[in-house]
Amino acid sequence: MFFKNATTALPVTFKQELQRLSVKEGECGVFCCELSKSGAAVEWRKGRVILKPGEKYEMKQEGHLTKLIINNVEESDAGKYTCKTKHSQSSAELRVRGESEIFMASKNTPGRFLSMISNITFFCEIDLPCIQQNHLSADVKEVSLKIKTKNHTLTKEVENLEVKEGDSAAFCCELSKPGAPVDWRKGRVILKAGYKYEMKQERGLTKLIVNNVEENDAGKYTCKTEDSQSTAELTVKG
């Protein structure tokens, strides 16, 4: 363990604890804390997993400050991070902003701010006075507003195909976000990559290739993201 080389009897403590982060997907997240001893050895963890420096994570020390930099933040990076010394530790949550944003509005929120956002509905929690749609009651001090945005949409939909038996069929659609995860389905069945089906992504394009088409391959095929889907028909010519 890195602790065995400590040369002081005084425990290393945190003069400034980690703070919770909210980072937009694709950006960098930086956790920072201040130690009582300059250059003290620390471990960074996500949950129980010890993090190692590399392309994803950078660990830096500047005097009493120690930093963890998380590059190219993704949804899977959300969670609890810990900076740990021999005698103490500090933890904080990373929240990744992608699909939803949270705003806090009050009765004093300028009307021009609310008018900038369309299709908003406010909802009362239990024991709060009723809030009319798109209006805050004067008796309500604060309300949480959640806005759903569609990040993973299809900008070009799948088109119907007519393919000769024995040939290959290639369905193609364009995503609003390159690399966004998709499911390809035939009917309700999720397709798996293999000899029969190939799934490819090239920047914003995602493709399903159906090899050696047979009569029983005819039917409806769907490209599905978390937010949207597109369906097209495959017709097999004998």
Give a quick set of tags describing it:
single chain; 238 residues; mainly beta; Immunoglobulin-like; 3 domains; five-stranded mixed beta sheet; 2% helix; 45% strand
Description:
With 238 residues, the protein is mostly beta strands. It folds into 3 domains: 8-97, Immunoglobulins (Immunoglobulin-like), CATH 2.60.40.10; 100-148, no CATH class; 154-237, Immunoglobulins (Immunoglobulin-like, Sandwich). The protein contains 1 helix and 20 strands. It has one helix at residues 111-115; strands at 14-16, 21-24, 29-35, 43-46, 49-50, 57-62, 65-70, 79-84, 89-97, 100-106, 142-148, 154-156, 161-164, 169-175, 183-186, 189-190, 197-202, 205-210, 219-224, 229-237. It has a 5-stranded mixed β-sheet, with no helix packed on it. The protein has a 5-stranded mixed β-sheet with strand order 13-20-19-15-16, with no helix packed on it. It has a 4-stranded antiparallel β-sheet with strand order 1-3-7-6, with no helix packed on it. β8 and β9 (89-97) form a beta hairpin.
